[in-house]
Amino acid sequence: MTDRTAIRDLLENWVLWRDAGLWDRFRTLWHDDGWMMATWTQGPVDMFIDISKAGFTRGVRILHFLGGTTIDVQGNRAVAQTRMTIEQRAPIHGVMCDVVCTGRFYDLLEKRDGVWGMVLRQPIYERDRLDKLDPDEPLVLDKALLAGFPEGYRHIAYLQTQIGYTVKRDMPGLVGPELERLYAHGAAWLAGGPAMPIGG
Question: Which domains, ranges and CATH numbers included, belong to the chain?
Answer without folding.
Answer: 3-186 (3.10.450.50)
